[in-house]
Structure formats: structure tokens, C-alpha cells
Backbone:
């Protein structure tokens, strides 16, 4: 029988993407930085894993 402590072994969520591994960013184009739309990209903080990197 293995007893697991709640929350003890669960990895922390990435605070940047909130555990999703993706972040939506606004895309600007041109000199006037016109908003071209939104783009979903990989979270650079956790590199898409959704887990907060342990440093
Ligand atoms: Zn992240």
C-alpha cells in the first residue's frame, strides 16, 4: 500500500501559462504596430510542459 500525500508529489503549475503550456500573445505588424490578431505560442517559461521549472 502506497500512501500519497496530497500535493506533495504534484508538480507546481507554471505561473506564466497557468499549467496549459501555451500562451496567447498579441501580434503586431508594421511600423504603427497595428494589431494583426492573436497567436497561441509555446510558453517559454515551462517550454510547453505546463509545469513550473524547478530551479
Ligand atoms: Zn508555462
Residues:
Amino acid at each position: 500500500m502506497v500512501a500519497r500525500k496530497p500535493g506533495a508529489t504534484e508538480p507546481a503549475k507554471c505561473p506564466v501559462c497557468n499549467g496549459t503550456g501555451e500562451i496567447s500573445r498579441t501580434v503586431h505588424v508594421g511600423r504603427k504596430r497595428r494589431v494583426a490578431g492573436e497567436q497561441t505560442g509555446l510558453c517559454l517559461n515551462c517550454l510547453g510542459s505546463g509545469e513550473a521549472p524547478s530551479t
Q: What stands out?
A: The chain has no helices and two strands. The chain has a mean pLDDT of 87.
